[in-house]
Amino acid sequence: MPPETTSLPGTAPAPRDAGIEKHGVDTIPDHDRTGRPLDVVGILLGSNMCLGVVIFGWLPASFGLGFWPAVSSMVAGTLLGTVLVAPLALVSFRTGTNLSTSSGGTFGVRGRLIGSTIGLLLSLGYAALTVWTGGAAIVGPLHRMFGVPDGAASYSAAYAGLAVLAVLIAIFGYRLLTAMSKWVAAGTLALMLLGIIGYSGKFSTAPVIDGYAMGDFWTTWALSTVAAGLSGPMAFITLLGDYSRYVSPRRYSSGKVFAASAVGMVLGLLVPQLFGTFTAFASGAAEDYVGPLVAAAPVWFLIPLLLNGVFGTIGNAGALIYSMGLDLDAIVPPLSRVKATVLTSVVSTTLVFLGYFAWDAQDAVTAFVLLLTAIGTPWAVITLIGFGRCRGVYDPDALQVYNRRSRGGIYWFTAGWNMRAVVAWAIGSTVGLLAVDTALFRGPLIEWTYGIDLSFVLAAATTAVAYLLLTIGSPQPVPEAVETEAPARAMSA
Q1: 33-359 has which fold?
Q2: What are phi and psi of 439, to 5 degrees?
Q3: CA distances in angstroms from 354 to 236, 349, 350, 376, 434, listed in the order given
Q4: Which residue ranges traverse the bilayer (predicted)?
Q5: Where do the structural domains in the chain lie, given as residue ranges?
Q6: How far apart are the first and last CA of the chain?
Q7: pLDDT tens-digit profile of 263-310?
Q8: Inter-residue contact 467 to 424 (CB < 8 Å)
Q9: Biggest alpha carbon distance in the chain?
Q10: pTM of the entire structure?
Q11: Cβ–Cβ under 8 Å, residues 223 and 453
Q12: Which of 114, 300, 390, 404 has the highest CB neighbour count under 10 A?
């Protein structure tokens, strides 16, 4: 594969047209792959500048950590997760389709439904969280400024309005999300700078609550590393491919796509999360984040906070609902992307109302991210091992067998399932779940890890060992027509 060049003869990028995106999880032809690595950075940065991501910076404070331990746990978790997750962008960069469909090259064309389901659940939960926090960021300022009732009716109206706007953005798809993310990123960065000024007079590095959530410092720090730090990159294990699939390998190198994904994730996660940590300590947020945030805000900061509650939320929720639509489209091929997007938005909005009326938010969010990290990590590990084994060379047509409701192809394995990959994923997921520690569920392996949640590490290591052992003598399928070219292309990337 050649390094990045100017447009090659006959391969100029297609115009960046507006309108509703036509592609679902089909293979995008090269003339439609008009994205750039910078677009990947932009959408990862802009789509995360919302309270749904900011609130993860509050979690370490709610666990009883001081400011600097909270910061170090998030930085450590984010960097560790990025090392694992960022290479996944290269899979869709090679295949031209989303990551769950691409994983069929390793799991089988039906086995890739595991990835579709994980991706759907991840996006579903995070979209609900985003709209939930966004609604609070709208109702709170309106209540303080204009006396709007701070009750169920106001929250219900805010949630419904945000959900409708987010689904409209998701329906239009990739190009609108890419364009919007740049403006949201610029506006929200300015808002955060104003926020640092506005809250600085009340800031303290002392813990906002007495005692550690897990009883001692290091166990609580480890929980924060996973729940507040590592969970951020893990949320992207199926989302990254939604954007890298629009970048053409004929015009850009793998190195640039990987760098763009890593930089976009680190900045897109740490900037809002660290702002969340700063404001959590400045506002004394213990049991709740958004309420104390609004209460402690200077009056002049309420309008910027309200604007972020609207635009930051619909940008992030729009990207997540867009990804949900792709995953549901991959699971149920007869559904169009647009219909799948509308359906998943309804389910996500239902979860928002349950989160407001029925659940303990902190416990639900923490348990959700830890449990999904435990089952998502093994899938990501196996997909990456498969990518390395085939040296990034896939048969795009064979990956679409399930979507065409047909049979056969080099990724058919056993009735569409690579049972070696499925068994390795099941083993890794089981170990991960048994080692997880949340307020709602405590795995028995916690007693063997000295009370520290090592579910991510154990799930990843167990999966890698199990998959490598199970696939001894069973090479990754490589398309015959390009098998001899693969090493040269992979090395030049």
Answers
A1: Hydantoin permease (1.10.4160)
A2: -70, -20
A3: 24, 9, 6, 24, 27
A4: 40-61, 67-93, 113-132, 152-176, 183-201, 221-243, 255-275, 295-319, 340-359, 365-388, 409-436, 448-470
A5: 33-359
A6: 6
A7: 999 999 999 999 999 999 999 998 889 889 999 999 999 998 999 889
A8: yes
A9: 70
A10: 0.86
A11: yes
A12: 114
Structure tokens at 338: 């647009």
Q: Hey, what amino acid is at 26?
A: D
- Cα 364–chain centre separation: 18
408: its two tokens: 């056969």
